[in-house]
Amino acid sequence: MNSQLTSADRQYLQRALELAERGRGRVSPNPLVGAVVIRDGEVIGEGWHAELGGLHAERAALADCERRGEDPAGATMYVTLEPCAHQGRQPPCVEALLEAKVARVVIASDDPSEKTAGRGPTILREAGVEVDFATDPETTAARLLNQPFRKHARNGLPFVTLKLAMSLDGQTTTAPGDSPWISGPESRALVHRWRAESDAIAVGIGTALADDPLLTARPDSGDTAQTPCQPLRIVFDSDARLPVTSQLLQTLDQAPVLIVIAPNADPERVSALRDAGAEIVVASGETPAVRIEAALSDLGRREVTSLFLEGGQSLATSFSAAGQIDESRTFVAPMLLGDDDRRAGPVVGEGGALRAGSSSAPPSPAPPARATALASSVETVGDDVLITARFKEW
Description:
20% strand
């Protein structure tokens, strides 16, 4: 049941949410989860899901109790997601809670997974454990923590985040011969952190040809205590034009490359890309939106729960028109680049996106072509302004 939480309950749930963040970029396709064990107003154990295949937060917190020489019997556990009751990479957390004789479990949010939803809390209650679900703001915070996991659990598709960088006059590219960077060094460092936290990063073929990017996560050495996880690198390339000499295909030892093509792509070019080591996905469908759905569905089957769109205009337009952008992160740099026919705004009208950037998309709560954010925030990053807009909540 939902309960009126005390100020102490909220404090411990906030701590559990902080702990959950420590697994970011390390546990996908699993959710971020944190847990705190309290007895007589004292913390006797803390834990979080630290890496895929490792202990879940509840078992990690109970193990911490043991390390501290504390007995969790009769204690309260605060956890950000309902405990699982099924065997996965780890045994059910519910079993560990019952074995530890925990008296009360306070849960910040539900788990929408079909194999999980509601089972753990039911088993705990039937065994005599008091189970309480939190209400806002802790519930909302816990759900927002795991938007990629929640979306994938509900419809099998990855959570799509669009990253943009533009000048004050709306330009997203610089003129030939100029520095390629619009955003500042602090913003670029943040983007590398986001890459490391994403399952996959995507660009259109236009960006791949113009920039020859690596698309690897390269955060500053002080930005992460561990070697960053590298995302799957994706190019939406209808006509299979990516050169086999590209940096992407020359660095397969760093991260895999997947190329999304149209059914009528040149077979010889497709074969050359395969021979170079790229994975190929054929996105079929009568409309761009259906082709985007096909590509996203394929990624979902690969357990890609988060997709980071990093360029360019055609790709952004295709996903926007298909209603497949869940969140956008836009850097606005303090510069004027001037009107130039060679450049356009970040999301252009319907057009060549799917020829230049082959795509596909899914049904689900999709915003209209002109979408209004459910929530937004503004912050400064170095000299830039970062605008984050969330269009869907899962």
